[in-house]
Prior knowledge:
By secondary structure, the protein is an alpha+beta fold. 41% of the residues lie in helices and 28% in strands.
Amino acid sequence: MSNLKDTFREIDQAIVADPSRAKGLEAVYQFNLNGDESGTYQIVFNGDQCHALEGEQNDPDCTLNMQTEDFLQMVKGELNGTKAFMSGRLKIKGNMGLALKLQDILSTYNKAAK
Length: 114
């Protein structure tokens, strides 16, 4: 299993290389992750200026709180975000509509990587 920093580095590379998959989305997602590896990360979608970063550098529009292991499974497509939310494994603060869009966006990057 890849570690958390590597996963966010891969996400950053994917969205910088092809920001068109999130076309029209302007939002800051913050991930507060807990577990063996923990940390705060953000994914920023802002036109062609999309990137992922460590820490809390921007005001988030949508904050997701979850265990690191669950996040890694969700990014790989092994854990459905809606099911994680309904079961209490994922807690969302802020714009719920943005949270729903995130799963679709991450899945398009996953499919492109395969």
